[in-house]
Amino acid sequence: MEADNALFNEEASDGIDAMNLKWVIGFNKDINNGVHNLTSDERTEIFYTSAHTGVIYNYETREQKLLQGHCNKISCCAVSSDKRWIVTADLGDDALMVVWDSITATPLKTIFNPHGKGVYRMDISQNGNYICTLSDTVPQEITVWDWSKDINNDDDAIVVSGEVPNPDQKHYSIRFRTFTEYELTEMDVDSSKLEIATNSSKAVLFWKWNEQERTLNYDDNEKELKSFLRYAIDAFTQTVFIPGTTQAVTGTKKGQIIVWDMSFIMEADSSPEQRKPMKLVALVNHEATFLTTQGPYLVVGSSEGAVRFYDQRFTVEAWFENIKADNIMSISFANQVPRPSNENQIKNEPSRIDDDKKKIFACPDFIISSDNANIIKLMSVHFEDIPPVDKKEQCFQGQTLVKGMRYPVNAIAVHPKKPLVAIAGGKQDDYSYIHVWNYRTRIRKKFSPFSGTKILQVHNAMPLCMEFSPNGEFLCIGFNNGNLLLLDSENINREKQPQIKYTEVAKGITRIVFSNDGKAMVTTDKGDRVALFKWEHKRNNPDLNMEWVYCGQHKSHYKRITGVAFGESIDEREKSVLRLFSVGEDRKLIEYDTNSTDMTQLQILSNNKIEQEHKPTCCIWYPVSTGEDLLLTMNNAYKIKLWNANNKGCRLTCLGPTSGGPIVKLKLIAKYTDARTAIDAPDYYLVYATEEKVIGLIKLPVDGNPNKHVGLVGHPGSITDIAVSGDHKFLFTAGGDDLCVNMWYIDHQAIERQIALGGQGEEPFENMIEGGKFGKPYKDMKDFFYYSQIRSKKENTTKARKLEGSVPLGEIGFLMRAMGYYPSQQEIDNMINEVKYSKFTDTGKVVNHLDMDTLLRVFVNHRPVYGVDRNEIRESFKVLSKDIGSLPKEKIIDLLLSKGEIMQDSELKSCLISLLGPSEDIYETLPNDVNADFFLEKILGFEEVPEDQIEGDNQIVEEEEDPEN
Fold it and tell me: Which own/partner pairs from 645-650 qualify as long-range (CB within 8 Å, at least 24 positions apart)?
C-alpha cells in the first residue's frame, strides 16, 4: 500500500457510529444556485451539496466538513450574504430544513417537515434572518420564516404564508430583494421592504408581506405581461432585483431579459408601486440559465458556459468565456473587497487612476458550477489580462476546484494494494466515463471517457459493473452490450487484453467476481447466464503468455441472478478445490464444475431449490471456521441462512437487519485485533447495502443477535454498488442517480461496544420478544414448553413426572404454531436440522432434544418479520383465479391435495373440521365459490389488529386464528 499521506486522520472516530462518513466525491450539479463561495481573507472554502450531505470544502487543503442529518436528497440550499449561515432543505418523508453555522459546521435550527413534504426552492434574506421557501405541493405554498427569533421553537419560525395562484404553473425560482451597502447603512430594512420575486415559465410575481397583519400579497401583473408580450417569447428562467433601483429583471431561455419597474403613474386597476414590464433586452445568444447581482452589476450565466457583467443600462462591462463549462447553474462571489481587473496596469501607471476611475471593472473572485459537473474558480484579474496565445485558454478557463460525475454512477472498485478508487457510469446512448481517484490525497488521477475512443469500438456502450483483480493488475469492466473490457490498472486508457465478447446475444454484464487467488473470474448477465474465466496460458501452451481464458457459460437460472460466489474446500487429498455457486430469484442454489473442459457450456454439479416462498437476494462464502463448508445467503424476508455446501442442507436461519429493505449486496472484511498476528484467525464482518438508502455492518458469526448488526442511511435513494479498500478500513458506496460516491471509515469498536451493552447469553433474544422476559408472549412460551414436556411424557397418568428441561425435536412444529407462527413442513425440517447438527462438528454427535433457550432462539430467528396480511391473501386469490377473485371449492381442494406441500385427504378434512366445526361431509360446508374474504374470516378466522397494538419493527402483525377455533 502506498504511504499514508492522508490530508487528515480518516481513522479518527466519534466513538458512536460503526461507519463514519469521511469524504464525498461528486455533488448535486443540477441544483440551481447550489454552489456557494465562502472564501474570505481568512478562509478558502466553498459550499455545495452531495446527495443528502452538505459539504464545506477547503480547496487549498482539500479537507471537507460534512453536514449530515438529511434522509432525502437535498433539493435546495442558500447562504447568507456574510457567508456565516447555510440553509439546506430536502423533499420527501421526514423532510428537514436546517440552518448551519458555516464556521463550526454545526446545526443551529432544524425545522421538521416544512410544507409537509419539504422545500422545493428557497432563498435567504440579505441580513440572514429570513428564509423564503416554495413547496412542491399543488397548489404551491410560499412561506417566510424567521429562524433567528427562537431557535428552539419551530411554531414561531413561520412569519407569514400564502398560496401561489394558477396551480398549473409551477414556480421554480424565488429570490429576496437585495440592497446596496449604502441602502443597508442608511435605512432599517424592515419586513415591508423585503420583497420576494417568484416565477414560473410563464408568470412572474412580486410579493410583499405585512408582518403585523401576517398577510402575504402579490402584484397581479398578468394583464400587463400579456399586453407587453404581444409576440411569442421563450420560457422564463429566473428573476432578480437590481440593487440601488426599483428594477427587477427576468431571464428567458432565448437569452433576453424582461425589465420590471414601478411606473408611479396612477391607474384605475393598479397601484403606482406595482412593478410592470418596461422593456425587453437581448443580452446573450443562448439561454440565460443563471442571474445574480454583484455590486452595481447584473451578472448573467448562459448555457454556452459564459459569464457576463452588465451595468444598470444593461451594457456589457466584462465577460469571461472559454470556460470549461456548459449550462451555468451557480455563480457565487467571495466575501472580499472587489479587485479591479486591470489592477496591475493601475499600479504601474498611477497617474491614470483618476482618468480611468469610471472605466475600472472590479469584482471579487468568484466560482461557477455547471451541469457538466464542474466547479470552477475565476479570478477577476483575468478580465482584460491579455496573455500569450498559447496561454489564453488556460487563463480564461479558470481553476477547477471540484470535478463531479455528470451522469449516474453504476459501479465502483477499489484497488487491492493502492489507495485508488475507480468510478464508472454513464447515460444510455449518450456518454460513459471512468474516474480514478486517490482517496488519500483527494486528487483525481485519471479520467477516461469510453464513448468515441479506440478502447471500446461498440457504440454507446455503458459500464454496469467493475472490479480490480486481486493482484491489482487488471481493471475489469462489464458493459450493457455484453462486452468485457480488461484494462491496465496503471493506465486505464490501455487494454491489457482484447475485449471479450463471449455471448452471441448482447446482454448487459451485471456482476464480476474474482476468486481469492485471482486465478478465476465469473460474470453474470441480464440473460440469467453464469460465465467462467480462468487465468491460464493461451491455448494451454506453456510457451505462450498468460491471459484470461473463457471456460464456458450456462443459462442456469430462469429468473434474475441475485448472487454468485467462489468458495474453497479441502478434498480427501488435502488439496484446495475451487467451487462456484449462484442463487437467483427462481429460489435455486446452483453449484458449477470449475474444472469443466467443455468450452461451450459450463457444467452444473447440483441444482437445489432452497426457498419456498421467499427469494434469495445475495450470497457469499462463509469465512468462519465451523468444521463445515458453508455458504451464506440473504433473502427478501430479512433472513440470513447458512447452507452446507456439500449436501445443501440448511444449518442455520437467523434474523438479519430489517431496516431499509432486504440486503442485496455483501462484502467481507477481516479485522485483526492488536493482540493477534496475521497467522491468527481474524474477526470477520460483513458490510452490506440494501437496494435503497441503508448500508450497514454485521459481526460474524451470525446467530440472530440484533446487537451484532448496525445500519444507517448511506444515500437518499438507490445504492448501485459498494466496495471495500484493500486494508479493510474503508467502505465506498455509490448512489447512482445522486451522482456521488461516499467514503466511510469502519469503526469495529463501535459495534463491539453495542454487543457488550446489549447483554450476554439469551438476554438479546429475550428482548426480541414483545414485552421482553417479563411479557406475556415469553410467559406463554414457557407454559407451552412445559406442557410440551408433559405431553411427551404421557399426559394421562397419576405418577410423578420427572421433567428434564427438554422436549423431543419433533415437538418444535407444535410449539411454533402455539406461539402464532405457522411454518411450512420444509421450514420445520430446517429448524430440526439446525438444532440436530448444531454441535455435530464439535462433538461428532447429533442433538435430539430441544431446550427452552434454543426454542427461544429458533422462534425469534425463524418467525416472519412482517406477518401475512389480508391484502397478500387477496392477491394470491387473484393470481390463482386469474383476476376473478374467487375459486370453485373443487379447485381449492384439488390445489391443497396436489400442489406445494401436498396434504392427504384425511389430513385436509381434519384441518377443516378443526377450523369450521364437526360435519359429516366437511367439504359440503364450503360454498361453491370461495373468495378471499370467506377464506380469511370463516376458515382462518383472521381478525383486524388495531394499529395502536402494533409495536416496533419485530412486532408480529400476523392476524391469528380465533382461539375458539
Answer: 645/567, 645/569, 645/579, 645/581, 645/591, 648/589, 648/606, 648/608, 648/610, 649/833, 649/837, 650/610, 650/830, 650/833, 650/834
Does residue 5 have a pLDDT over 50?
Answer: no
Omega prior to 139 cis, within 30 of 0: yes
- Residue 263 buriedness (CB in 10 A; 0-12 / 13-18 / 19+): middle
* Residue 704: Cβ-neighbour burial (10 angstroms; 0-12, 13-18, 19+): buried
Res. 962 pLDDT band, cuts 50 70 90: very low
Class of domain 409-756: mainly beta
Cell numbers for 367, please give them: 466560482
All three cell numbers of 563, joined, read 448472487
DSSP assignment of 500-549, as one string?
E---SS---EEEEEE-TTSSEEEEEETTS-EEEEEEEEGGG-TTSPEEEE
Flag whether pLDDT at 947 surpasses 60.
Answer: no
d(CA 891, CA 425): 51
The answer to whether domain 119-143+151-403 has CATH 2.130.10.10 is yes
What distance in Å separates the CA atoms of residue 426 and residue 406, rounded to the nearest whole number?
Answer: 8
What residues form DSSP beta bridges with 250? 239, 258
| CATH of range 763-862; options 1.10.240.10, 2.60.40.10, 1.10.238.10, 3.30.365.10 | 1.10.238.10
Grid coordinates belonging to 803: 421433567
Query: Is 143:128 a contact under the CB 8 Å cutoff?
Result: no
Tens of pLDDT along 366-411? Answer: 999 999 999 999 988 777 654 444 444 444 568 999 999 999 999 9
Q: How far apart, in Å, are the Cα atoms of 606 and each of 38, 582, 603, 609?
A: 62, 11, 9, 10
Alpha-carbon gap, residue 78 to 100, rounded angstroms: 10
Of 567, 569, 694, nearest to 633 (Cα)? 567
**Grid coordinates of 639:** 433472513
Planar angle of CA 244, 83, 144, nearest 5 degrees: 70
3 state SS of 830:
helix
Cite the beta strand spans of 371-506 per DSSP E: 374-378, 399-403, 409-414, 420-427, 431-438, 443-449, 463-468, 474-479, 484-488, 491-500
Furthest C-alpha separation in the chain: 122
User: What string of H, E and C letters represents the secondary structure of 753-799?
Assistant: HHHHHCCCCCHHHHCCCCCHHHCHHHHHHHHHHHHHHHHHCCCCCCC
The residue assigned the cell 374474504 is 933
Q: pLDDT tens across 605-659, in order?
A: 999 999 998 999 999 999 998 889 999 999 999 999 999 999 999 999 999 999 8
Residue type, 575: K
Answer yes or no: are the C-beta atoms of 362 and 341 closer than 8 Å.
Answer: yes
The pTM (predicted TM-score) of the whole model is 0.90
Give the amino acid at 152.
N
